[in-house]
Amino acid sequence: MILGTDLLGRRLPSLVEGLACDRLFVLIDPALRQLQAERITVLQAELPPSTAYYSLECSGEESKTPSQLAELWSWLAEAGASRQSLLVIIGGGALLDLGGFAAATYMRGIRTINVPTTLLAMVDASVGGKTAIDFAGVKNLVGAFHLPEEVLIDTAFLETLPLEELLSGYGEIIKHASLQGEEAWYQLRRLGDPVGLSDAEWLELIRASVDYKASVVAADPRESGLRRILNAGHTVGHALEAFALARPQGQSLRHGEAIVLGLIVESYLTTELTGCSRDYLRQLLYLAQELYQPALYSCRDYGELISLMRQDKKNSHGLIRFVGIKAPGDWELLELSDEAPLRAALDFLRETFGRL
């Protein structure tokens, strides 16, 4: 991982040169050509003239489809990509997921470099090698592990990031700090609202979050044990995210925001199932109320939400599984067979942010 500010044109060309590919392919979010036009132009001047570029609109989960995946396969094939080629993916988490899965499956795998351009992608999608598309209404149902050759995290991209995207990425940082322990959790709560953080503060915050995730991934690359803790908030969060996505005119719910709401529901369940202190839950709730909006669902939607939770990949033998955080750095893998506690936890979240 290479982390810094204004790195794109200075570091990426030398990374590409060091990996000695027969042909370079660059997949880029088209919005960046406008938002970061000068930096993209400088980068193109530094890359080999034979580089093939492709712009693909992939701004959210609704873009991670089989048809978009096939579009990328077609581009790679028609442009002559081989197993010795290199794909650089410059964009947000959805594009990294989609492009990474295309790379993992094209000719059984070609190398990639990830250049995340959103905070969420920097601290989540760019690290760990998980790639996927959504299928049959389920988030990340079809995917593969495919580690990038390198990750280039350039905080200059945060300068043009909308507030809602910044807060979405901050949700994953909240999760990582919750798992790390008391010191990381205290430091995050001390910062509070991330708006207005200096470059130095962002670099420190992102490095701590990415280093933590990388250490967990290194200890468990294939998610067979320890790495499961990174799914904290995701059993409920993914269901909330999928539910919001399916609503034709509903409130959009970004990934990091959904994970924070999922953490609240799962932490409430943890206090009920284990009898642990509610201190962490109260602190999390206070932080979430300061930064995030209510989850738009009603008690009539519980059946659909629970059905989505039951489709989570972590489940087994009809049990809903989740990571219960009892206190910062103190977690336990928990299971539910009875829906009643889950309905009570969904009630808790809905009523905490105001009855809808």
Largest sheet entry: 6 strands, parallel
CATH-wise, what's the superfamily of the largest domain? Answer: Dehydroquinate synthase-like - alpha domain
Order of helices and strands: EHEHHEHEHEHEEEHHHHHHHEEH
Helical percent range?
Answer: 40-55%
- Placed side by side, the strands forming the largest sheet appear as 1-8-5-4-2-3
Work out the radius of gyration: 20 Å
Overall number of domains: 2
**Average pLDDT for all residues:** 92
Q: Note the total helix count.
A: 14
Tell me, briefly, the overall form: globular
CATH architecture of the largest domain: Up-down Bundle
- Low-confidence blocks of residues: none
- Portion in beta strands: 15-25%
CATH topology of the largest domain: Dehydroquinate synthase-like, alpha domain
How many beta-strand elements? Answer: 10
Please give the CATH class of the largest domain. Mainly Alpha
Distance between the termini: 44 Å
Helix-strand category: alpha/beta
Folded structure, characterized:
This protein is α/β, with parallel strands linked by helices and 356 residues long. It has 2 domains: 2-160, Rossmann fold; 167-352, Up-down Bundle (Dehydroquinate synthase-like, alpha domain). Helices cover 49% and strands 16% of the residues. It has helices at 8-18, 32-35, 37-46, 66-78, 93-105, 119-125, 163-180, 182-191, 199-219, 234-246, 255-274, 279-291, 302-310, 340-352, and strands spanning 2-4, 24-28, 52-55, 86-91, 111-116, 130-135, 138-145, 150-154, 320-327, 330-336. Helix 1 packs parallel to helix 3 (37-46), helix 4 (66-78) packs across helix 5 (93-105) and helix 5 packs across helix 6 (119-125). The longest helix is centred in the middle third of the chain and has 21 residues, at 199-219. It is globular. 44% of the residues are buried. The mean pLDDT is 92.
